[in-house]
Amino acid sequence: MDKTAALASEILQGIGGEKNIQRLENCMTRVRVEVHSDDHLDVPRLKQLSGVSGYVKQGQQHQLIVGPGKAAQVVDAMRALMGGEASVSIDDAERTKAQAKAKYKAPMSDALRQLANVFIPLIPAFIASGLITGIINILKRPDIVGDFATQYPNLLGILGIFGSAVFAIMNILVGVNTAKVFGGSLAMGGVMAGILSSPQLAQITLFGEALQPGRGGVIAVLLVVILMCWIEKRLRAVLPGSIELILNPLLTTLITGTVAIVALQPLGGWISEAIAHGASLAIDRGGLLVGAVLSGTFLPLVLTGLHQGLVPIHVELVQSHGYNALLPILSMAGVGQVGAAIAVLMKTRNARLKKVIKGALPVGLLGIGEPLIFGVTLPLGKPFLAACLGGAVGGALISYWKVATVITFGLSGLPLALTIVTGKVMLYLLGYLVAVIAGFLFTWLLGFNDPEE
């Protein structure tokens, strides 16, 4: 049995076996499990597993942090041990009962998690787009590659198509995902986004003003598709089954489309403009202080799940300006973690803690900080505070230097340097280094209680 299968087997035993599983899934770094009874869950045993670097409970969901890529492998292995089932779930009545028994409920966090679920499936596309754009920026620089751009213009043109494709269909993708998350028809979600983006809107005048295709960006799409899902469900409940298939999509499109054009798209436009101008103004004029506050408080937001509410802001900034000045600032929070973890590694005498840090540091350098947060700094207390302070120092500098990236979200750490706008790459790397040093020094000065076990 390989290490992944062995870890999957140990997790199954720690959560009380296959029969105790209500739902099993994964994200980029975590195995997420909902169980029938917490009484059969052995949390101390799960925390001690060599492949598990942290444990978190959000609502009724138990989350085991095993690392990027590995989370999907472990879940696949668990499902194989359970007989190859794609997912495990219970009926609605039992789910309602289980939710009623939940000891902790965070409505705000759950709502933001739903919002993030609209965008999380798009992360691979954003990463590919950002990296390709970064490669194009390098290939256009004669001081690095000579006259490559003049010799191979067609190649650069094709790469440009590859890098910008996700933004060309952004609203459609968001519309489809929003419908999926909020229980509507996927095709109808795409149709609503298509209506908002249609170039023919520019030929229509309403209330004395020409309509603007794509106004409001993803904010307008979210508002409209959420309304569409609500209307579609209500119509499904009242229309006779014999005509529901025909009348539901027709009435849903007419009602939602009308409300969208008259009210929701203008509302989305005002909201998106306020977000874009407000964020840009804060970063441009806030300088050191705003950068320090944003980066220094980002890790606590991650712990509560409230950081998920920032996702539409990232997307809106790129749609409005073509760049994102917020992401490089927030990424410094994870960089402060790296410095704090290095300090802990040098001071601790705990063999298991050293092993956890050595396993989590490489992915931490790449911008995936959850193993370091939940496996190292947060359990120790003071190093988590030191990491926040280190991130605040780096974020202050990044904000002051007005460093921006061409990507929305999905990348962080060192790889983000490939997507930084021309002329700011070295400043980003300098900010990265300063944040590491600051996180290290704060941890060294604050100290921590070295665990015996």
Question: What would your notes on this structure say?
Answer:
With 453 residues, the chain is mainly alpha-helical. The chain is built from 20 helices and six strands. The chain has helices at residues 3-14, 43-48, 70-81, 92-100, 107-119, 123-139, 142-145, 148-151, 153-168, 170-181, 186-197, 217-238, 241-296, 298-304, 311-321, 326-347, 351-365, 370-380, 382-400, 425-446, and strands at residues 21-26, 30-35, 54-58, 61-65, 205-206, 209-210. The strands form two sheets. It has a four-stranded antiparallel β-sheet. It has a two-stranded antiparallel sheet with strand order 5-6. Strand 1 and strand 2 (30-35) form a beta hairpin. Helix 10 (170-181) packs antiparallel against helix 11 (186-197) and helix 10 runs parallel beside helix 12. The longest helix has 56 residues, at 241-296. The radius of gyration is 24 Å and the shape is globular. Mean pLDDT is 84; it is low at 85-107.
